[in-house]
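Class, discuss our next protein.
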Amino acid sequence: MQPMPESYNVQRRSMDVEDYVDVVRRHRGWIAGPAFAGLVIAVVVAFLWPDTYVSMAVIRVVPPQVPEKYVASNVNIEMAQRFSAMAQSITSRARLTDMVNAHGLYPGLRSRVPMEDVLERMSKDVKINPVFSLRDEGMQGRPASSAYRIEFAYENRYLAQKVVQELVSRFIDESITTRASQSVMTTDFLNDKLAEAKRQLDEIENRLTEFKMRNMGRLPEQRDSNLQQLRTLETQLSAMSSSINRATQEKLLLESQLRTLRDQQQRAPATAGNTAETAAKSERLMQTEKQILDLETMLSGLRQQYRDTHPDVRRVQAQLAVLKKNRDALLDDEAKREAAVPKKKDAAPVRTREGAELEATIQRQQSFIRAKDMEIEQYVKDQARLDKAIRSFQERVEAIPMGEREYAELTRDYALARSRYEELSQKRANSEIATDLESRKQGETLELLDPATLPQTPTEPKRWLIIAIGTWLGVVAGLFLAGMREVRDTSLKNLKDVRAYTGLTVLGSVPLLENDLVVRRKRRLTWLAWSSACIVGFLVMITSVYYYYTKQA
């Protein structure tokens, strides 16, 4: 017979179903105990855990009653941001403290922990979430919400409903107050900006008026009118010069005729027979002089419009040359005739009717010459006035570039200030209409869609789930303990162990013989322990259930 190997060197044999059943039978107490303890603990926890009721309400966003294309809103904050800001304001420390004190929330918790912890607990119990739907999908794939769910979890369902109702009321009031205040602030801001723009516009307008008054007639916008006026004056001056030339020539013609008449008067006795011929020649000479004067006036006007190479100018020049030749011929004939007549110094003047007419003609010629002198003098005064006016307009035109930059800056600043003032005025008017719309509560508002519910069943705890989980954990703990005891027990339990570990053939087996008294005593103690444990466990569970239903009643 070979010696048995060391026990710590022997590997355990593989266990089958019969072995597992045998393990459960041997350690059934270690399995049932933790399982029963888990059941008792789970029942106690499940029924001592206070109920939590969740009251819920839904509010939706109501769009403005007036279409946006008619009255644009002056509150430019999106509903999600505005609702988030309102939620932070409503769930602030001060407002939560008011609700806790007003409704007497968390009395047991307030007696144990400071108010800060109570408020933190309440902030976790209050949940504000948007309600999404498929048709609310935004253009960029982000969900847009037009409704929000407000929830509050508390152990008293009536208080939970009251708290949700108060939260909903505060959200609606806060929405109206917030939009109204933001609208009024926008209008006030635009009023301030409009007043500032008006002040700047008046200031620039005063500066522009002062500049115009200081530079009257020398403004860049008056350049064209000044140039046009200057051209008009130059034309008038040219015409005035032509008039002076014409009047001077007419005066010269009259003086020439006067000299002729005086010569005739002096030669009257000697030339009595040639009076008709002389008068005829004088008449032709006067007509020629007049024609020459008219052509020279016409030539001066044509030269102001055309060059010397123009056909009309050349034609007038040719006619003028022919007339001057005729005048020179007539003057030569008259000079030769005067030279042929002998002078008689001692002849006494003869007073005849022709002499009287000649004297009257001389006086008329003298009056015509004096009239021409007065006309020429008036023309000279007008010419001096035109020269002065031309110099004045030339100075204006020359002075325009000096203030053109300053005037351009003032004009540009005035245009910008006026445009800004008109823009702000329009915005202010639109903002006032939007503010009036908000004051009438016809803008975007919050409306109660589903009122605060009164929960009938608690949402927490899930008692049967807790009991099942506790019992299962107890069974698992018992199996774990049984497995640990089985691993630590290295004794031979049955014939399979004897055959596997000794390698010998088993001829028979002798049952374990114990004292009946000891066996009965051990059984009684076991049953007593189990009975006590079961009774205590059932009492504890019944007490927990009774406490729960008593508290509910």
